[in-house]
Amino acid sequence: xxxxxxxxxxxxxxxxxxxxxxxxxxxxxxxxxxxxxxxxxxxxxxxxxxxxxxxxxxxxxxxxxxxxxxxxxxxxxxxxxxxxxxxxxxxxxxxxxxxxxxxxxxxxxxxxxxxxxxxxxxxxxxxxxxxxxxxxxxxxxxxxxxxxxxxxxxxxxxxxxxxxxxxxxxxxxxxxxxxxxxxxxxxxxxxxxxxxxxxxxxxxxxxxxxxxxxxxxxxxxxxxxxxxxxxxxxxxxxxxxxxxxxxxxxxxxxxxxxxxxxxxxxxxxxxxxxxxxxx
Length: 279
Prior knowledge:
Blueprint: H1 2-5, H2 8-40, H3 53-77, H4 80-106, H5 108-124, H6 130-143, H7 196-199, H8 214-218, H9 227-237, H10 239-277
């Protein structure tokens, strides 16, 4: 029995099973991303990657498809070159993830500024992209937040800006409302109080933080804290779990490299033995 666990058959089919699932998941993500970008008519537009969930999904799916394909085909066909491409891709991915993690830790303030900038881009484009809109709504509901630093950040969006006319002006998306109020998609409409002559001038286009309508504030109708703040709090609270998840991903990647190298070694040993026997 012990010889089976270290046998070529076990290593081969373990590597195959893992990678066929990985490849299939990557294929599904690719199909969804391509369909989404085709529907929006921006299949070849990668300029808005930071605020386009479909583009991010496309990149992740493509990486998974690439690695999974070389992994399962290499294992099934016992193709040494494919296995080497698979192992090398995993090593590059692992080193890239490690580099990003180290840079994020060393340059925390810079990373925070970049994230904040992209979050403002997401607010600005909220009504322009249905995928982005859904992602923002999910984030605000999940983290029980509104805006980036606070709810007034939605003044960056032309539809919610108090100084513009429209049904949504001086409001926030429904996902900013407390969860029990979100059954009403108009729960965030007109929640801010302002005086046109005071706040809508050439020099002042924003409503101050304390200008929620009295009844909205008293009833705690919306979340007032920004998502960047609540996300940072969540990250700090769950730091050990996040670290554990990252370690788990690293172990899986290293394990994949080990299996590929082990199978490659066994294939080469069998091939060398065959040629020696037939000399």
